[in-house]
């Protein structure tokens, strides 16, 4: 056997892509302490904290309007599955955190959807989970947005929430004409 054949099987790593936006980034440089465009490993048992206190937070936002610890992300394995996910918890007593349309008060937490917008104050963060298999760690990959995320990337990537029928004709065509779709038996065609 060759060393290639004896080598450990490579695991894919779950990666959390986070794209940051703030309207005053150009002037105030609140993201200057974040490491953009390079993947960073985080141990699975660590909590990734975001805020302005560099002694506690792994990801520092240089803004006095940001709480010492704004929010945290915890990596976990879903019960009775091999799937992994992230839980987001608001750790700010003063500022509510919104994940898509779900508002989180202090110490509230929810599972992070595979793709969502996290917002607080004027901050917008597009979070996208790239699935992997590793149990020991996950990676973060930070990006900086030039324009508001809701305008720049979010709408064009939203999956269609309306089911697409087998015939490919969208029900919205009928609804725009004031008619509702009717079911037809195959034998009637």
TrEMBL record:
**Gene Ontology cellular component list:** cytoplasm
Pfam families hit by this protein: FHA
Kindly give the Gene3D superfamilies that the UniProt entry links to this protein: 2.60.200.20
Q: Give the keywords, sorted.
A: Cytoplasm, Immunity, Innate immunity
- Location of the protein in the cell: Cytoplasm
Q: Which residues form the FHA domain?
A: 49-121
Q: Does the keyword Amino-acid biosynthesis apply?
A: no
Lineage, top-rank taxon, reads Eukaryota
**GO BP annotation list:** innate immune response; positive regulation of canonical NF-kappaB signal transduction
Principal location: cytoplasm
Q: Into which family does the record put it?
A: Belongs to the TIFA family.
For this entry, the protein name equals: TRAF-interacting protein with FHA domain-containing protein A
